[in-house]
């Protein structure tokens, strides 16, 4: 990784935890990069009604040379994301991403990031696709199973 820009969180009106979704993009507007050779990824926080840019990750130049060594740093950089959108991706990268819980998607060259975000928001407001429903299940279970832990955190700890 050559450079990573992480934007600071600001207080928001929503109580939803945004989903982290990555896009392989050279211009931060369109998906236009092959996963293994991507020079940059933008990571967005997305919920039902809003979205914001969270991070931009840039990598040193490298071609599509079949060297799988460069996949590791890209996969580590996307930790915590639910999905990554790219114009192409190899089978090895797909396996490695799925193993760490990141769902890869191949979309046509030039797909607008804002349009993809809007489509995800539509799924969040309505009926999520099977992959999104699977990805959301642990998050929803965690929220439902631990309300008392959240309350204890608010109350503080004393010994």
UniProtKB/TrEMBL annotation:
Matches recorded under CDD domains: NifX
Organism, as annotated: Marichromatium purpuratum 984
Entry-linked SUPFAM superfamilies: Nitrogenase accessory factor-like
Protein family (similarity comment): Belongs to the NifX/NifY family.
Alphabetical UniProt keywords: Nitrogen fixation
Dinitrogenase iron-molybdenum cofactor biosynthesis domain boundaries: 28-120
PANTHER family tied to this protein: IRON-MOLIBDENUM COFACTOR PROCESSING PROTEIN, IRON-MOLYBDENUM PROTEIN-RELATED-RELATED
Protein name: Nitrogen fixation protein NifX
Domain of life (superkingdom): Bacteria
Coiled coil regions, renumbered to chain: none
Membrane-spanning residues: none
């Amino acid at each position: 990784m050559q450079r990573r820009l992480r934007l600071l969180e600001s207080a928001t009106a929503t109580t939803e935890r945004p989903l982290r979704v990555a896009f392989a993009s050279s211009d931060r507007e369109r998906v236009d990069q092959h996963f293994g050779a991507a020079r940059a990824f933008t990571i967005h926080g997305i919920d039902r009604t809003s979205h914001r840019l969270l991070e931009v990750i840039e990598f040193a130049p490298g071609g599509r040379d079949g060297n799988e060594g460069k996949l590791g740093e890209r996969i580590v950089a996307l930790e915590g994301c639910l999905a990554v959108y790219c114009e192409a991706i190899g089978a090895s990268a797909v396996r490695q991403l799925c193993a760490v819980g990141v769902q890869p998607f191949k979309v046509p060259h030039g797909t607008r990031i804002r349009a993809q975000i809007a489509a995800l928001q539509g799924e969040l407001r309505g009926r999520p696709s099977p992959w999104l429903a699977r990805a959301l299940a642990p998050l929803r279970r965690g929220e439902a199973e631990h309300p008392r832990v959240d309350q204890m955190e608010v109350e503080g700890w004393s010994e």
